Amino acid sequence: MSAQNQQPVTPDTPVTPSAASFEPAESRGDARPVSFFRRFLSQPEAKFGLVLTGLVLLVAIAGPFVVPAWTGYGPTSYAGKPFQYDIFGTDNLGRDVLSRFLEGGWRLLLYSALATLLGVGLGTVLGMLAAFRGGWLDSVIMRTGDVLLAIPQLVFAMLAITVLGPQGWVLVVVIGVTHAPRVARVIRSATSGVVAEDYVLASQMYAVPQWKILGRDVVPNIMGPLMVEMGLRMTYSIGAVASLSFLGLGMQPPTADWGLMINENRIALSLQPWGVILPVVAIAVLTVGTNLIADAVSGASAGRVTGSARKDK
Amino acid sequence: MPTTTTVPKATVATAISVRDLNVGVHGGESILKDVTFDLTPGRILALVGESGSGKTTAALACMNHLRSGLELRGGSVQLHKGASRFFDQNMDLLTLSEKQVRRLRGGTIAYVPQDPALSLNGALRVGEQIHEVLRIHEFGRNSKQREARVAEVLEEVGLPSTKKYQRRYPHQLSGGQQQRIGIAMAFACRPAVIILDEPTTGLDVATQDLVLKTVYELTTKHDVAGLYITHDLAVVAQVANDVAVMLRGEIVERGPAKQVLYRPEHEYTQTLLAAVPDLKGARDMGGGPAVSPRAAMRAPWDHGHDDAARPGEARTDRDRAASSVAQTSDNEPLLAVRDLRLAYGPAVILDGINLDLLEGQTTMLLGESGSGKTTLSRSIAGLNGAYTGEVRLAGQVLANGTRKRSNEDRRRIQYIFQSPFSSLNPRRSIGDSLEVPLEMSGGMSRKQRRAAVADALDAVRLGRSYINRRPGELSGGERQRAAVARALVNAPSVLVCDEITSALDVSVQASVIELLRELQRDRGLAMLFVTHNIALARHVSHKLAVLEKGHLVDYGPTDHVLRNPRHDYTKSLLEHVPTL
In what order do the strands lie in the sheet with B494-498? Predict the structure, then answer.
């Protein structure tokens, strides 16, 4: 036994804490976590992803407004002989590649955004219902989803478009519906974690209507996985819409569209590569950008990012 | 070193000395401030403090481990010459390389974590888990010697050492057995120092008693220096030779256990000790005297009720509940449970429960995990509607589920959840969460509801400024007060408290109990206080009901049950409860 262990409390400590200073019910005002947005932005992926996505968004949204004025040609007007090399040259029908590129982005973005909203919305509602109600409803929803998951997404989309015809709304609905079971799985597991919490039980105890419990207690607490799904599904939607257009099942000629441009211009890849390179780069940058954003969102919501002053004194 | 069965005696006076240890959050506040202590072979030092006081951080620093986000700001952890068979000179553990540290941990300094169920590998047989530790630290010459050591260490912790037992998986053992496997792993290599981080928190009292005895025996017999981290001073009294009390990263008092526990000098230690519940009722806790062995039926704080409440009529005029049920005579129970049964298939959870709750009185429902006490309290509150039998409120039979009960019935019975960390929605402000009961019972405008919530927050002594805060900004005790306030906004007549203090530190527990007693006195609430901690009995309850495996095995006035326990289970509880 050492002298150190027996050393009494030095009575001449300069700061003798008063009884109030170790009052147990002491507030931890500094425990408020850094806001989600700040945590999100503090990651390099987030900034990089925002810049990439922003660039493509700018091209796609502002492009249609500047098309005849800046480039001198409309997206479908004749600009010269096929495969000439001005800035970006002309395509197989002699249309200006740059004009078509600037014009051709917004549909892709709009359709993928709508498909994502539809898919995530549908999947969230179904997933929450499955986890919250449980029982037979859970089984019906999830097993139906499994059946849908068994069919490859693209094959399902091609089938539907062949039957219903290549129209915008078909594209949106088909891609949205194929997203829904995947989203529903994630949301169901997130919800079942929240449903087990006592505050949901407390709301049940006070006989709060069930839709209110979902809206007030569940949704705010699954925002993390929900945002991640949103970003992820956006990436997939862009890929799916572009692929279907490339396959000729999305937008139809002579519409200017990035996916369609790749298909139309690939025959002359060695002669005049710009008609392929521009849309390919744009789609690649866009998907990488949205993916980085989704990563950053998941990082911020999973608490992998430090910077919150959570440790108490 | 040959593995003989002789117990190696330590040759040093001090195994590890920690000097001026300073640890802080990266670029932020400090967690440990000049922490200094010595670990002596054959003695256990208890590091006592509340959650967040830095006791685990200090203990882990002894093993040169800092949790992510923390940084070392100075100090030394000196391992003394001769204390370990791996290191034969004095060395500062904080300067070791990762490779050296790995040899140190487990071999020289062993660690027993809090939750045995999480710390054992569920896919490995228990014998193999202990064997693995020995193999990694090259204990013994060959596999045979190591196997002998596994059997030996199992005996030492009081478990069977047969091959059959060693072939079990962790999930085939009880919590107490799992924790003893954890202790066996820690002691397997004959470490010089063992660090135990609240190893008995999740165990019931009888198992805790056994584990504490094992730890005490092993450290003294094998001359191991022990560091025992806990917040429970009653446990300290059982195992520790020396005590160091931590407050916000500083050791404020230290000394031999007897001196610190019975003649505390620092104000904080005194506060802590005053908050420890006392089964004998000799000390006061929770803002008033306990039911002493002499006060037979009525709790002493009742007399205060009679004397104080009459002249102070104005104090209770806000209290709608007390006035609405004041006519009920003393003999008729406000809430009666009659022949309540609940079974899930063949598994009988509750069997023929009869229980009365009287106005202004508390019944303590005591039982360990799995005894059905939460199921019973939830059945009463209507959260679990699968029961048969009757729950009567003021003579009327209640429906089986909350959604089937009327607004008025729901209003009059309120339930408080165990964990304040789970019972409040983290995304909503305290005010919004507390408003829900009023919103659902209807008849009030939003402004009136806000006012009622603010009043309730005042009543639980949080203050109305908390109305716009989020649960994340509150400490555990504050959250539990907010949860109590949610139960109070509707002016209930019955309060069901389901283990509401078990997630809290002792001093917070004392303040919550004080609050409950005060509210009961002011509002005449009937309370069902569910707990596994029998030591609280004399501090909260008028009546005591002991639940074991779905049966009420003992039921009667608190003092009567405590003095003449009828059932073996109650007797064993009383026997094993750690006391100061």
Answer: B413-416, B494-498, B526-531, B362-366, B543-548, B551-557
